[in-house]
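Technical annex, item 7. During the second reporting period the consortium partners agreed on a shared format for inverse folding records so that results from different sites could be compared directly. Each record opens with the tokenized structure and is followed by the designed sequence. A conforming record, contributed by the partner at site C, is shown below for reference.
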């Protein structure tokens, strides 16, 4: 009877952020074509993306809320007062194709071209139903900045 209280079983998941340099180059090239400033890698955003990718993989569910709302996840890593957005996906075999699929989706593309973005974090979780991808984009801290989610 206690097993019913334990929640769904966790899946075997491995996670990595090793795709970040390739993602950074592709995103910056795309942003340059649109006349936008480049972004840089950020360890706090990486941590938020990693938490999200792992949570999606463990639950087997594509959801922006599975690891908590983006604002909560960013607060947890000390990122506040920023413009921020998130792209997620599952099943895309590599980072190049993940970015191309986001470019083909108007809401995800809008996030890639977020004018206020100055930094990103990207993570991939591998396991059943994956890979599970999470990309967090944010601007620099600015008191009173409104969230863009």
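Designed sequence (site C submission):
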């Amino acid at each position: 009877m206690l097993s019913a209280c334990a929640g769904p079983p966790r899946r075997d998941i491995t996670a990595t952020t090793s795709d970040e340099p390739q993602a950074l180059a592709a995103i910056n090239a795309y942003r340059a074509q649109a006349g936008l400033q480049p972004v840089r890698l950020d360890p706090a955003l990486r941590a938020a993306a990693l938490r999200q990718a792992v949570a999606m993989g463990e639950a087997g569910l594509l959801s922006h809320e599975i690891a908590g709302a983006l604002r909560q996840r960013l607060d947890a890593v000390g990122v506040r007062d920023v413009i921020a957005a998130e792209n997620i996906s599952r099943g895309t075999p590599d980072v190049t194709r993940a970015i191309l699929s986001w470019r083909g989706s108007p809401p995800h593309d809008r996030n890639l071209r977020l004018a206020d973005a100055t930094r990103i974090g990207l993570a991939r979780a591998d396991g059943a139903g994956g890979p599970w991808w999470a990309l967090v984009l944010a601007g620099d801290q600015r008191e009173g900045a409104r969230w863009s989610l």
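Residues 13 and 127 are 5 Å apart (CA to CA). Strands lie at 14-16, 40-41, 84-90, 119-126, 132-138. All partners now use this format for quarterly exchanges.
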